Structure formats: C-alpha cells, structure tokens
Prior knowledge:
Helix content: over 70%
Number of domains: 2
CATH topology of the largest domain: Growth Hormone, Chain: A
Radius of gyration: 24 Å
Strand content: under 5%
CATH architecture of the largest domain: Up-down Bundle
Number of strands: 0
Order of helices and strands: HHHHHHHHHHHHHHHHHHHH
Largest sheet: none
Shape: globular
CATH class of the largest domain: Mainly Alpha
Amino acid sequence: MTADIEKGPILGQRHLQVFLLFLAITVNYIAKFNAGVAVVAMTNAETTNPDFPEYDWNEMEKSYILSSFFWGYFVTQFPGGYLCRRFGAKLTMFVSTLGSALGALLIPFTVDWGGWQVYCGIRVVQGLFQGLLFPCIHSHLAAWCPVSERNRLGALANTGIECGTVLAMFLSGIIAASSMGWPGISYISCGVGVVWCILWIVFAANSPSESKLISEAECNYIESSKNALKEVDARDTPKKIPVPWEAIMSSWPFWALLVARSAQSWGFSTLQAEIPSYMNGVLGMDMKSNALFSALPYFAMWCMSYIYLILSDVLLQKEILSLNGIRKTFNSLAFWVPAVGLIAVGFVGESQQTLAIVLMTANVGINAGSTIGSALNTIDLSPNHAGILMGIVNTSANIIPILTPLLVGLIVKNEEDRTEWQIVFAISAIVFGLGNLFYIVFGSTKLQPWDDENFLLSKDIQNEDCVDNKSTETKEKY
C-alpha cells in the first residue's frame, strides 16, 4: 500500500499564488478591454452620463484607439520571458500591472488636451507593460505547481481571462452610467490594479523555497514533485540557466505548440471581432451596442472553462486519459467544433437571429478548451524555460489579431455580402483545422531533454569528447 504524501494545508501557499495569478489576469484584462465601452461613452455621452465631456471622433480614430493596445502588447512578449528570468516573476509582474494601472489613470487627465492621439499613446504604453505578464505567469506556475496539479492550477489561474473580459464589459457600462461617468472606468481600473499590486508584494514569492509563509511539508511536496521528473534536486538548480536556443528551435513539440497557439489566435480573433461585424452587416443585429449580447459569449467561455477543468480532473484521476490525451482531445474540441460553427454561421439567414447568437455563444464557449488543450503546454515541455517559450509563442499569437482584420478588409468590400463573409469564415475554419492537426501529430506533453539545466554543458562535453576522439584517431593514423 502506497504511503500518503504529506501535501501541507488543504489550501496552501500554492493555491494562494494561483489565486493571485487569477486576480492579476482579471485586473489586467479589465484594463485591456474596457476601452471598447469607454470609447462609446466618450463619443456618445447621451447613452451613459451626459455630464461629462463628449468627443467627436470618427470610426477610424476609434479603431486606432481600440487597436493601439496591441501595437505595444506583442512587442514586449518576448522580452517578458527574459525579464522574468533576470528579475523574477514577482518584480516583473508588479511593474507590469502597476504600469498598466497608472496608464489607465492618465486617460481622464490627458484626453482633453491630447485628443484621441494621446489616448492611443497611453494604450500603446499599457500594452507594452501588459506584454510582460503572461511569460511571467507561466514561469510562476512552473515554479509553484506540483506536476500532478499543474493542469488544474494552471487552468484555474487562466480563468481570469474570461472573468476579466466579462467584468470589463459589464462593469465599464455600469460605471460610465453612474455619477463617476466615463472617467470612472479609468479610476476603477487603476484602483483594482494598485490593490492587486499591494497583495502581490505582500504574499507573492518567486518560488516555494523563497516563501516565508509556506509550510515545510508543502515546500517539500512541490519540490519533490518536480524532482521526480529530473535527475537533480530542483533546489540545486542554478539561478541562471542558459537558454538552449538551437534545441528549442529544432524541437517539433515546440513548433506544434507555436502553430496551435497561432491558429487559436487566428480563429478566436475571427470569433471575437468579425462575427459581430457580420451579424451587423448581414443579419442587421447591432451586437456591440448590446451589453448582454457582447458579454454573453465570454460568460459562456468562463463557465465552460470550469467544465473543462472538472472534466480533465476526472479523466486524469480515473486514468481514462493521459495528460497528452487530454491536451489533444480538448484542443480538438476547442478548434474543430468552432471551425464547423464558423462555416455554419455563414449560412444563417436574417430570420434566424436567435440561432446566430446561439452559434456565436457556443463557438466562443467551446473554444475555452484551448487553455487546457494547448496554452499550458509550455509548462509540460520545459518548466525551466516556460517563460521564454510563452514569450515566443505569445509574440506570434499576438501579431495575428493585427493581421486578420487586414485580410478581412481585402476580402469583404461590402459588409452586407454574405458570400464574402463566407470566404473569411472558411479561411479561419481551415486555419483552426490544420493548426490542430499539426498539434495532434507533433505535439507532446513529455518533458523535453533541453529543459535540463545542464543540457548545454553536457552537449559541450560531448562535443569536446568527439573532438578528442578524432584527434586521437588522427595521431594513431600517423
């Protein structure tokens, strides 16, 4: 009979760290997506609180404001992995969230004299700060999650994405209509960000061994769990581990992850941004002005993320599927079902508006499985380099939402032409389908050899031995 493993308290420091990560994603996503509501309130004060200034911005200027965040966001994804390794997740995430929060605070005080241009500039800076976030989150999860709990705890932390998106849409509208008006959106965004920073400074630690609050039992449980996959003690790992770039770039599992996350970004950006435009143009439905319609798909996604989480736990604990099987099964559901759904939406008639809303909500909700399916795969492949991997993958994934609207602009010349939209949806469905197929064939949940902190050293030794052997053979010849 196997002895029970001492895991420490039922709710330990690892759970607190994951809860803080969940809150980090939530407050940053509130700051990330509240501009959609804020811009409407700032250009049409009658819909919210007419006691505050109104600005005469055209559609192009509003589009610049909404997209400017991503101009900065994708730039710092890759540096984020390096900064996290250099300064630790605790400091880097603190700077990331505080910078974004203070940026939000500047908006009400600068828009009067700087117009939409200064609003764009602030959003770019917010994007630059927030780009540091996710490489740190994956690195922090790798440091704190026992191997058997990575899937559950990682997925729980990432539900902050859906929570933050829903709250950004609902709360921003309520705040804009209150006595605080549209400036209140910025004040609240800044406030929740600063409160999180205080909690983070007090309770966060870069690793279990650095935490002053963790019990010895829990610390040993986390470290021994990680050691089970390695030949050396995780506590003896050098602080600075060189990045094996050549091995990473020649790794098929890494490329499978990169392709899957880029395909997810392409498909999801179509679900998120283009289907509402299609419904407005072809079906005559103004989704964006209806808070319920706007938030409903993301609420469904939030609920589905917990369903996927519970289901994956059951399948793992009962050994019905391996982790590799769960990753690829969930990713297939998250990619292939919305792929079919995208094509189906293109054939919905104007008299079937309810069906269109159901399809859109179901597509976005089912896509929540991609978090467990592929987003957490960075930690499977390499806990030591999870932040670096996430930086590379997220850089690629966040360039896609900048490019897809350009493709839509080339294809869709008339927003009321169903045939043109069907081409857009078919392309996205193909990207979803082929991206997941590549992931199924080449993806893996096995710890990669290049995760070993001594990988480059052992490789150098092998090369030296090879040179010495050749030299000896040459001498013997002569």
